């Protein structure tokens, strides 16, 4: 059973960089054909897809965030990470990591982490 | 970007009711649509992918239909554990976009 777990600071100052890590257990992050994705959800609002990294290391980012987002993978630790620079209060949200099996579930996200709240405030 | 809308935004229903939620895409997305259930404080859970395929472990009272621009999620007999918010997500084109959600609450 694949499990994902987000970790990182819960409070980030405005203009700084938000950094989160997702640790994958129950399977190797580098095996199979998967996108490893980040999604966020402001309190009381809907879901926003941030970006993803493929097993090979290639990345795709939401155009609305592309200039500020970097997603990377560390296969030795079975982790992938999100960096979001120049944050503002509008970036305050619960951040989720999730798995997209590319083909198996037709672009859907089948496993999710529990989410971690990141607040941007001075 | 493709825009996703859902209706209704909320629905009040009783245990045993049949509930139908509609999702509409601003342009055709073939069958590249997923449905998720989210309970307060929890991550979304995948229910349906490819518009009508039931994810493993999801009860058969959930079903999905549609293609192109119009899609439906149906709960055939609402159970107490089904009170939640439901989101659709298009996976046809980049970036993936979620609908605004439909909250199903107790009547």
CA distance, first residue to last residue of chain B: 36 Å
Number of strands of chain A: 11
Total helix count of chain B? 0
Principal-axes geometry of chain A comes out as: globular
Distance between the termini of chain A: 39 Å
Enumerate the spans of chain B where pLDDT stays under 50 for 5 or more consecutive residues.
none
Strand content of chain B: over 45%
Largest chain interface and its two residue counts?
A-B, 19 and 26 residues
* Helical/strand content category of chain A: mainly beta
Number of helices of chain A: 0
**Biggest sheet record of chain A:** 7 strands, mixed
How much is the average pLDDT of chain A? 95
Whole-angstrom Rg of chain A: 14 Å
* String of helices and strands of chain B: EEEEEEEEEEE
Brief descriptors of the model:
heterodimer; A: about 120 residues; mainly beta; about 0% helix; globular; B: about 110 residues
Q: Describe it for me?
A:
The complex is a heterodimer of chains A (122) and B (107). Chain A is globular, with a radius of gyration of 14 Å. Chain A is mostly beta strands. Chain A is built from no helices and eleven strands. In chain A, a hairpin with a 4-residue loop joins strand 5 and strand 6. In chain A, the strands form two sheets. In chain A, strands 2, 4, 5, 6, 9, 10 and 11 form a seven-stranded mixed beta sheet that branches. In chain A, 0% of the residues lie in helices and 48% in strands. Chain B is mainly beta and 107 residues long. Chain B is built from no helices and eleven strands. Chain B is globular. In chain B, 35% of the residues are buried. Chains A and B meet through loops of A and strand 5 and strand 10 of B.
């Amino acid at each position: 059973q694949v499990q994902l777990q987000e970790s990182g600071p819960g409070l980030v100052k405005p203009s700084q960089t938000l950094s989160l890590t997702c640790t994958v257990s129950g399977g190797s992050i580098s095996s199979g054909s998967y996108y490893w994705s980040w999604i966020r959800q402001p309190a009381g609002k809907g879901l926003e897809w941030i970006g993803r990294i493929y097993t090979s290391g290639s990345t795709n980012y939401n155009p609305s965030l592309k200039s500020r987002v970097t997603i990377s993978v560390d296969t030795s630790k079975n982790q992938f990470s999100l960096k979001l620079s120049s944050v503002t209060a509008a970036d305050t949200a619960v951040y989720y990591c999730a798995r997209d099996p590319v083909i198996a579930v037709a672009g859907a996200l089948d496993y999710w982490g529990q989410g971690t709240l990141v607040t941007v405030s001075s | 970007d493709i825009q996703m809308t859902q209706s209704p935004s909320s629905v009040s229903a009783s245990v045993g009711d049949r509930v139908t939620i509609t999702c509409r895409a601003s342009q055709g997305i073939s069958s590249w649509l997923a449905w998720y259930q989210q309970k307060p404080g929890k991550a979304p859970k995948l229910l349906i992918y490819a518009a009508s395929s039931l994810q493993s472990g999801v009860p058969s009272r959930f079903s999905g239909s549609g293609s192109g621009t119009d899609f439906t999620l149906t709960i055939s007999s609402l159970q107490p554990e089904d009170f939640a918010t439901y989101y659709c997500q298009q996976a046809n084109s980049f970036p993936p976009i979620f609908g605004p959600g439909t909250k199903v609450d107790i009547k």
